[in-house]
Amino acid sequence: MDQTNVFSLDGKLALITGGGSGIGFDIAKCIVLAGGSVVITGRREQPLREATETLGERAHYQVNDVTERALLDNLVETIETTYGPIDILVNNAGINMKKPALDVTDEDFDRIVHTNLNAVFSLTRACAQRMIARKRGSIIMISSMAAYYGIDRVAAYAASKSGVEGMVKVLASEFSPHGVRVNSIAPGFIETAMSKTAMSGDPDRFTRAMRRTPMGAFGKPDDIGWAAVFLASEAARYVTGVSLPVDGGNSIGF
Ligand code: NDP
C-alpha cells in the first residue's frame, strides 16, 4: 500500500447511480477530488450533462433508468468498453414517498422496492461478475437510517433499505473471498431535494429530526461523499460487510 495517500483513488473508475444531483453528485465530486474518474447515471440527461461539466474531464455520464433491469448488463458493458474497468460501484439512486402505511398502494410499494432494492441487486450482480473475475472492486450501497428506526410514513422505503442492509452482509460474505468488498453507508438527515420534500408540509418535523440528532444539524451531501471515498480506498482494505452511519449521531440512540 502507498502509505503516503491511502485515500487516493488515482486511476480508479467509479459508477455512481443517481449521480446528477443530491448525494450522488457529491459522491462523484469527492471521488474526482480523490483522483478517480466517474460515470454518473440518472433518468434525465440535463442534470447529468451539467454535473459532468462541473466535475471536469474525468467525469462522464450515461442516461439510464435503474428500474429497467434488463438493460443493466448492457450499461455495464458499454461503460467498461468506453471508459475501462469499473473499480467502484455506488448504488445511490433511490426514491422515497411519505404516506401513512394504510394509504400505501401495492403500486407505490412495488415502485419504491423496485428502485431501491431490486435494481440495486441487478446492477450489483452485473458489476460484481466482472469485479470478481478481476479480483478487485468495492461496492457501496447508499442505504438509510430508515433501515434501522421506525420512522413514520416510510414503510416501503424502510423495507427497501432494510433489504439492502441484509443483502450487503450476504454479498460481502460471498464476494470478499474474491477481492470484492461490499459495504453500505446509512445517511441520517442530509440536505438534498429528497429531504426537503420529506420535511415539507410539517413544520414540526424539522424540530423533531434535530431533537434526534446530537450534532443538531443536517449533514451535507459531501459528508456522504467522503465516507464513500474512505470505503472505496485502500484505507478500508480490511472493511467489508459493514453499515457505516453518517448521521450526526442519530444512531447513538437516546
Ligand atoms: P435526490 O432525490 O436528491 O436524488 C436522487 C437521484 O437518483 C437523482 O439524481 C435521480 O435522478 C436519481 N434516480 C432516481 N430514480 C432513478 C432511477 N430509476 N434510475 C436512475 N436514477 C434515478 O435524493 P438524495 O440525493 O437525497 O438521495 C440519494 C440516496 O441517499 C438515496 O438512495 C436515498 O434513499 C439516500 N438517502 C438520502 C437521505 C437524505 O436525507 N437526503 C437520507 C438517507 C438516505 P433522475 O431523477 O434524473 O433519475
TrEMBL record:
As given in the record, the signal peptide range reads none
The record's GO molecular-function terms, alphabetically, read: oxidoreductase activity, acting on the CH-OH group of donors, NAD or NADP as acceptor
Domain named Ketoreductase: residues: 12-188
Membrane-crossing segments per the record: none
InterPro entries per UniProt:
KR_dom, NAD(P)-bd_dom_sf, Sc_DH/Rdtase_CS, SDR_fam
Source domain of life is Bacteria
The family this protein is said to belong to: Belongs to the short-chain dehydrogenases/reductases (SDR) family.
Q: What is this protein called?
A: SDR family oxidoreductase
What lineage is on file? Bacteria, Pseudomonadati, Bacteroidota, Cytophagia, Cytophagales
